[in-house]
Amino acid sequence: MVPTASLIVYFSRAGENYVNGTIQTLSVGNTETAARMLAGLTGADLFRIRPVRPYPAEYNACIAQAQADQRRDARPELEEYPDRLDGYDTVFLGYPNYWGTMPMAVFTFLERFDWTGKTILPFCTHEGSGLGGSERDIRRLCPGAEVRKGIAIHGGGVQAARPALERWLRGTGAR
Predict the structure, then answer these.
(1) How far, in Å, CA of 95 to CA of 13, rounded?
(2) What are the residues whose beta carbons fall under 8 Å from the beta carbon of 139, sequence distance 6 or more?
(3) Would 3 disulfide with which of 51, 69, 90, 99, CB 3.0-4.6 Å?
(4) How far apart are CA 124 and CA 171, in angstroms?
(5) pTM of the full predicted structure?
(6) H or E stretch including 108?
(7) pLDDT band at 28 (very low <50, low <70, confident <90, very high)
(8) At a CB cut-off of 8 Å and minimum separation 6, what does 138 contact?
(9) Can you name the residues that pair with 91 across neighbouring β-strands?
(10) Strand pairing category for 119-126 and 146-147
(11) pLDDT (tens digit, 9 = 90+) per residue, 29-84?
(12) Cβ atoms 99, 70 nearer than 8 A
């Protein structure tokens, strides 16, 4: 199936990140790097999920806030949303794996829209935990959507992920 219109929605965080066993400062987050690669491969539009209260740039403060959000099942307020998703039949959904699922800001985004008839293609960046339970969570949050098999990209190797993304796109029928 060739999509008539595609959108890449992603959450990404620059600043201090855990990469290949060490804390490194990134000017562009790993998921944003993957999202930009996908945009180059597909021509899809890009939309970045941005919480009103961003996660701190310092790694330990970030993980403390992210864990607290997950424990209380928070739905952080977002800066903006697309006006509508009606013009898109395929949505690539990108996020880092936070403790086995997506950051809570992604939950906020997903709960905002009617996903009936949409195809969702998840992609996540991680440092060893893969997709975790995120595909299951997306199916739960997006009734009526077809959620296809996602791809997990090792964050420390995201710069070299283009061939893997190309294979994944061919396998999903999205390219």
Answers:
(1) 9
(2) 145, 147
(3) 90
(4) 17
(5) 0.95
(6) helix 104-111
(7) very high
(8) 93, 102, 110, 120, 122, 145, 147
(9) 7, 120
(10) parallel
(11) 999 999 999 999 999 999 999 999 999 999 999 999 999 999 999 999 999 999 88
(12) yes
